[in-house]
Write a structure and sequence with these properties.
Layout lengths: L1 H15 L8 H7 L2 E6 L5 H16 L3 E6 L5 H13 L4 E4 L8 H9 L4 E4 L9 E7 L1 H15 L9 E6 L7 H19 L2 E2 L17 H15 L10 E4 L2 H13 L9 E2 L6 H9 L5 E3 L2 H16 L21 E4 L2 E3 L4 H7 L11
The chain binds beta-D-glucopyranose.
Beta-D-glucopyranose binds next to loops.
Length: about 350
């Protein structure tokens, strides 16, 4: 009797294999829609997290996923990967572009095939194939960094002047317009009044950009600035370096340490992403702050967007004015960035399960 019951049970499991959504395993695999996810690089922590979060969440929602990383920010590779996604029948494509303007041609095919395209974190420019954009409030990231410098240097009330330099990211990343713009909008009155001196004279976004957001490039530029302006603990004082993100901040920090700065006299250095090396620098006193953008929140939002589109409904958006990609404003969802210093990183990063204490060497 017991044996008969066991056999019956096995037979039931084998024939139905029912999934939560009521489909059988074979029909789920056959009918599941496929989503292409194109990420820029494996060499920066955040994009690995973005990619794996997206894959896990899309699969949990019942989609097949074609996740691709374009080597180390290789534009032709990204174009090829997106083309393959279109050709291999993806039903939707999510793209974090390396160069926001390099996908115009390939996306013409996506539009012809009626494949919705969602721009992930970075806006894709000059393409009417882009259906939606999901990102963080990039302008707010910049204002958070600018306000941090304003407070840390006590600019509202001090009467003497300070010396400062600026670093932003890749010239082909539309986000820099907002990161740099937000920070400059806060600091401009002080630059205009002469309270902030930028001894290098490098003040435009183009002059302070960093190709590919590369740590090495940022380090080289900071080393040059140190040499040409005499910055150093014993030399010309340097009060702050505004960096748009953590990968550039890490290069700047390396150069400042080489120049002899220590936690005791370190200039204010801003960042963004809460990458592990930068959080460790914050703990060591060699980076002052970062901006936390919880990649789980962005991935959740994009999965919900994809799901709505696949079910024929309108995705939720909260911004219809800010992001014009040259073909018109792209309906967007902006997640909220959060200011991070050593005062709140345990709560933000460890208690929320984003990192373990061991990840941060705590
Ligand atoms: C992202 C940042 C990131 C940077 C470098 C930007 O587009 O918004 O979070 O630090 O790219 O990868």
């Amino acid at each position: 009797m017991k044996k008969l019951l066991t056999m019956l049970l096995i037979a039931v499991i084998a024939t139905t294999s029912v999934f939560a959504n009521g489909q059988t395993e074979s029909s789920t695999a056959k009918d599941a829609k496929k989503v292409g996810v194109s990420m820029p690089t494996k060499s920066l922590q955040r994009w690995n997290q973005d990619g794996s979060n997206m894959k896990a969440k899309l699969e949990a929602a019942g989609y097949k996923v074609d996740l691709q990383y374009a080597g180390d920010n290789d534009i032709p590779t990204q174009v090829n990967q997106v083309e393959n996604m279109i050709m291999s029948g993806c039903d939707a494509i999510v793209i974090a572009a390396i160069d926001g303007s390099a996908l115009t041609e390939v996306l013409i095919e996506a539009k012809e095939e009626n494949i919705p395209v969602i721009a992930y974190d970075r806006l894709i420019m000059n393409s009417d194939a882009v259906s939606y954009y999901a990102t963080f409030d990039n302008y707010q990231v910049g204002t958070i960094q600018g306000q941090f410098v304003e407070n840390a240097l006590n600019l509202k009330s001090r009467t003497d002047s300070v010396n400062m330099e600026f670093f932003t990211g890749a010239p082909d990343d539309n986000n820099c317009v907002f990161f740099f713009g937000g920070a400059i909008d806060v600091l401009k009155p002080y630059i205009t009044s002469g309270q902030i001196n930028i001894l290098s004279g490098q003040t435009t976004r183009a002059q302070v950009s960093t190709p590919n957001w590369s740590t090495e490039e940022a380090q080289k530029r900071m080393e040059n600035l140190i040499t040409s302006n005499g910055y150093g603990p014993e030399g010309t004082k340097l009060d702050a370096v505004l960096c748009s993100n953590d990968s550039t901040a890490q290069g700047v920090t390396n150069a400042l340490i080489e120049a002899g700065y220590t936690a005791e006299n370190f200039p204010v250095v801003t960042g963004q992403d809460c990458d592990i090396p930068s959080v460790k620098n914050m703990i060591a006193g060699t980076q002052s702050m970062s901006v936390f953008k919880d990649t789980r929140t962005l991935a959740d939002k994009v999965v919900t967007m994809v799901d709505s589109l696949m079910k024929g409904s309108e995705p939720e958006i909260n911004d219809t004015t800010t992001y014009d990609n040259g073909t018109g404003v792209i309906p967007s969802y902006l997640c909220t960035p959060v200011f991070a210093t050593t005062d709140n990183i345990t709560e933000l990063l460890v208690d929320s399960g984003y990192y373990t204490k061991a990840d941060l060497g705590l």
